[in-house]
Amino acid sequence: MTGWIYVISGPSGVGKSTMIRELRSQCEGLGYSVSHTTRSPRADETNGINYHFVDTDIFQKMIHNGAFVEWAKVYDEYYGTSFSGLREQSDQGLDVILDIDSQGAKNIKNHFRESVLIYVLPPSITVLQKRLKERATDDAKTIHARFQKAAKELQNCVWYDYIILNDDLIKAVDELKSIIISHRCRTDRMRPKIKDIIGDKTKS
Ligand code: ADP
Ligand code: 5GP
């Protein structure tokens, strides 16, 4: 991988997709890793854009063939990040955003030590529940199941590199953008540029 990997996690309904959409409209050079999943598409989702929607049989074949850098069962469905999807973004010289759960985040960190892990918190559990309900993309049973898992899922935030509180959306996206911009200024990231300017004379 030549680009940087940014993993974004948080409970269902906290605003991850909204923040990522907004971030990508404001910040250049950011690709998105489209995961594979066995869950059914929502009304506003497109195959190949939001997810690659596949059946369990295909997903298990992909696991067997080693197609996934990480995969996990989340809310009783399979989700996975494919090597080929990541490579496709990286080959275009893009940094890659992954919207994946905390099991996936751990696996990505093990595989790519320099990946940056960002957790999105809701202002409160009550607000999270309200957002999940008002999004109105899932039936009542699904919303209930996701909400039940939220409190436990939130405990994972402590081992992430960064935490963003998504209360005011504009502020939250600004914070996300700041993390990415500051990482782009890191010395190790700037080495090719330094070499362009002063040649190979850098002290280590
Ligand atoms: P996730 O991808 O984390 O499951 P979504 O991005 O789908 O969550 O957001 C869930 C709902 O919350 C959507 O209806 C979205 O418009 C809304 N939302 C996201 N961020 C905010 C915010 N800061 N304030 C109010 N509503 C928000
Ligand atoms: P949703 O069904 O709401 O789109 O996503 C449910 C959960 O699955 C979210 O926490 C999301 O971050 C996670 N998720 C989406 N894609 C992947 C993936 O490829 N791997 C893992 N581990 N989790 C994923």
Question: Which features does this protein show?
Answer:
single chain; 204 residues; alpha/beta; Rossmann fold; five-stranded parallel beta sheet; four-stranded mixed beta sheet; 9 strands; globular; binds adenosine-5'-diphosphate; binds guanosine-5'-monophosphate
Topology:
Elements: E1 5-9, H1 16-26, E2 30-32, E3 35-37, E4 51-53, H2 56-64, E5 68-74, E6 77-82, H3 83-91, E7 95-99, H4 102-111, E8 116-121, H5 125-135, H6 140-154, E9 162-165, H7 169-184, H8 187-198
Parallel strand pairs: 1-7, 1-8, 2-7, 3-4, 8-9
Antiparallel strand pairs: 3-6, 5-6
Helix pairs in contact: 1-7, 5-6
The chain binds adenosine-5'-diphosphate and guanosine-5'-monophosphate.
Précis, in short:
By secondary structure, this protein is α/β, with parallel strands linked by helices.
Task: Describe this entry's structure for a reader.
There is one protein chain. This protein is α/β, with parallel strands linked by helices. The protein has one domain: Rossmann fold (3-Layer(aba) Sandwich). Helices cover 46% and strands 21% of the residues. The chain contains eight helices and nine strands. The strands form two sheets. The chain has a five-stranded parallel beta sheet, with helices on both faces. The protein has a four-stranded mixed beta sheet with strand order 4-3-6-5. A hairpin with a 2-residue loop joins strand 5 and strand 6. Helix 5 runs antiparallel to helix 6. 27% of the residues are buried. The mean pLDDT is 93. It binds adenosine-5'-diphosphate and guanosine-5'-monophosphate (5GP). Guanosine-5'-monophosphate binds next to strand 5, strand 6 and helix 4.
